[in-house]
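Much of the work behind modern protein science is quiet bookkeeping, done one molecule at a time. Below is the pair of lines this work produces for a single protein:

***
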Amino acid sequence: MPDTITSFFESLPKRADPAMFAGMTASYLFRIAGDGESAEWRVVIDHGAITASQNGAAAADLVITMAEEDWPAFARGELTTARGLVSGKLAIEGDIPLTMKLRHFCEG
């Protein structure tokens, strides 16, 4: 698993299995705030093709906001959407059913 926020998103198009996103068209905006590697990343899925770009100011179907300190657990798949919402570590806005695909970002 990539060890930085930047390497996670830069490697996502190669790591994620396109079959898990076949026929899907959606966009995700990840807002990660902290003192270190704070960033916004936009992930676009277009019928299985995945692209990721930093500073994704454009609108997204789903926006996920978290603290930088919670990022490693999310990236490893340990901080699930449900756990993150219950604990207050994740804030989610938009098309909630898209959260079901988030775990596939962390696999591979």
Notes: The chain is about 25% helix and 30% strand. The chain has one domain: 5-106. The chain has a mean pLDDT of 88.
